Amino acid sequence: MNFDPFSMQKKMFDEWEKSTAEYVDKVMRDPSFMKTISQNMGSTLDMQDAIKEQTNKVLKSMNVPTEDSLDGLYKTVHNLETRMLDFEEKIDDLSDMFKKLVEISESIQSEAKTSKAKPKAVKQATKKESPKKSK
Amino acid sequence: MKEMNFEDYMDEIWKTPQRLNNIHKIMKGDFEPTPAQTPSRVVKEFGRVKLLAYYPKGEVTQSPVLMVPSIINKYYVFDLAPNQSMVEYLCDQGIPVYMIDWGIPGPQDKYTTFEDHIIRWQGACLRAACKDFGVEKMHLLGYCVGGTMATIYAALKPKRVAGLIALTAPINFHDDGLLSSWASSDQLDVRKLSEAWGNIPADFLEESFALLMPTAKMKKYMNLYENAHKDSFLKKHYALDGWLNDNVGFPGATYEEYVKKCYVNNDLMNNEFILGDMRVDLKNIKCPLLVLTAKHDHIVPDQSATVLAEMVGSEDITSEQFRAGHIGITVGSKAKDTMWKTVQAWLKDRVVE
To answer: Which candidate from A20, A38, A89 shows the least CB-CB separation from B187?
Structure first.
C-alpha cells in the first residue's frame, strides 16, 4: 500500500507554510508596508491623545485627579526608588571597604604581636644560656 | 513517501478517539500549566524586583550562578514545570541558582531607564546574591535582553562577575532579521509610543513577535493536533504556551533607549553605548565567557549573538551553537542534553574560590 494520506497532508501543509512564510516576510520587509503600518499606528496614537486630552479636561473640571497630575507622583516614586538603590550600593561599597580595613588592621595587630613576641623569645633564650655559661 | 501497511492505518485511525479524549481533558483544564514548582526562597525585594534563591537538595558541589531573564518575559521560562526546568536540573547537579524576577512594571516604571535595570536592580541583586552565599563573585547567566544587560554589567562593573554566560544575547542589532529591519527603520516613532502608553503593553509586543513568524500559530495547532493523543506532549505544550502568553510590558523609558541605542544606532557594536555617564567598552570583559546561540533563532539571529566572542577582552572564551530556536534552546525537548548540560559542564570547570 503506497498511498499515505496522512503524510501527504502533512507534506502539503509544510509546503504551504514555507511558501506563505517566505511571502509574508517579503511583504513585511517592504518599506511601503512599514510606512502604512506606522501611519496607521501614528493616527491611532493621535486619536488616543485627543481622547486623553478631552478626558483630562472633564476630570479637571470635576476636581478629580487626572493621569497628568498622577504623573508627578510616579516620577517622585521612581526617583525615590533609584536613589534608595544608589544609597544601598554606596552602603555596600562602604561595608566592603570597612571589611577590608578590619582585615588590614587585624593583620597589622597580629604582625605587631608576633614582632613583640620574637624579642622576648630571644631574651628568654639568652637568659637560659647565661647560667650554662657561668657553670 | 513512507509505505503504509494496514496496521499503520489502524494506528493512525485509533489516534482519533485518543485525541478527542484529550481535547475533553484540555477543556476540563487537566493540562493547565503549573509553573515555577522548584522550591525557592525570596532573598531580597527591591520594589517590584525580587531575588530568588534555589538550593540543591544534596551537597553543593559547584559555584552558584545568577540568572538574568529577559525583562519582557516571566522568569519561570527557566522553571516551566517539574522535569522541564533548567533550575531544577542545575540544582540536581549541585549548583545553587539565584534568579532575578523582574516583576510587573507599574505606571511609575515609564520613567525606569536601562541604567536602572542594568546597574541598579541587576547590580543590587548580584550584590545580595553574593552576600547571601558568602562569596565575593558570582557567575552571571543572561537570556535574550537579559543577556545583553548582563554583558553590559560585566563590562561596567566587573568586580563581582566571576564568569559570563550569554544565552542568545543580542549584541549586533543590525542583522538580517525582520525585528532588526522594523526596529531600525525610521518609520517607528518610539517616543510617540512611550508618550502615549507609558509602558509598552505586553499585547503589542506579543503581536509584534507573532508577526515575525505569521504562520507559527497555524504550525503550532497542526503540531498540537498531530500529537494530541500523547499526554506527555500536551503537558509540555501547555506549560510552554502558558509562559508564551504571560508576557509583561516594556517600561517606556527603557524601551525608547533600547530601540534607539541598540536597534537604530547599534551602539554596542560601535563601542559608543553610553549608560548614565559611563561608556560601555566590551573589551573590559576579562572574565571567562560562554556564548550560547541557536541556529534557527528568528528573534536574535545567530550572527547577532556570536559576535560577542570577538569583542571581549577575555582569554577564556567558549562558543556553542545548538540546532534550536530562540525558545527551544532553553525549553525544547533536547534542551536538557544540549544547552543545560553545556552550562553545567562549563560551570563545573570554573569553580569560584
So the answer is: A38
B193 to A45: CB separation less than 8 angstroms, yes or no: yes
CATH number of B162's domain: 3.40.50.1820
Q: Is it the case that residue B41 has pLDDT exceeding 60? A: yes
* Residues whose CB is less than 8 angstroms from the CB of residue A105 and which lie 6 or more positions away in sequence, other chains included: none
Taking the Cβ of residue A47 and every Cβ of chain B, the question of whether any pair is shorter than 8 Å is answered with no
A1 touches chain B (CB under 8 A): yes
In a domain, B9, yes or no: no
Please report the pLDDT score of residue B185 as a whole number: 73
- Show the domain range for B191: 37-348
Q: Does A75 touch chain B (CB under 8 A)?
A: yes
The domain limits of chain A are: 1-64, 65-130
Q: Which among A11, A49, A74 has the least Cβ separation from residue B107?
A: A74
- Dihedral sign (CA B201, B204, B207, B211): negative
Note whether residue B11 is domain-resident: no
Give the model's pLDDT for residue B55.
Answer: 96
Q: Please judge whether B2 and A7 are an interchain contact, meaning their C-beta atoms are less than 8 angstroms apart.
A: yes
ipTM for the predicted complex: 0.76
Question: Under a CB-based contact definition with an 8 Å cutoff, are residues B302 and B312 in contact?
Answer: no
B1 in any annotated domain: no
